[in-house]
Amino acid sequence: MLLVYVVLYPRSPLIYDFDMSGLVNAPYAVISEINGEQLDVDNVTQRRFRGFCHSPHVMEYVRKEFLSKKEEMLAEPDLLKGELSEKEIKGIRNYLEQFFDIIRDDRLFKNDILDNCRTK
Hints:
Elements: E1 4-9, E2 12-17, E3 33-34, E4 37-38, H1 56-68, H2 70-75, H3 86-104, H4 106-113
Antiparallel strand pairs: 1-2, 3-4
Helix pairs in contact: 3-4
């Protein structure tokens, strides 16, 4: 089952297809190249933020929005019972929890998100 989340920021939906991400960890997933640059990661489950830079106000707004949706997002894997094994569901939940660990911690948020954003 393909998971798609829609994040709304000023009336502009951003749709993200997770089948090529670490969340799903599909056997056919590959590490992306961006503008001919091979990312410095070993596998698709290794996180490296490559989104675009925005003002600190916008980044903090989006951070708080995700944090406010934490419980709702962590409940989503349970909807896959019967479709996925308990082990797979636990792996998805753990992957999501690691994301929230990063954005909750000021130092990790700066190091893993803010310091890795793209300008082009």
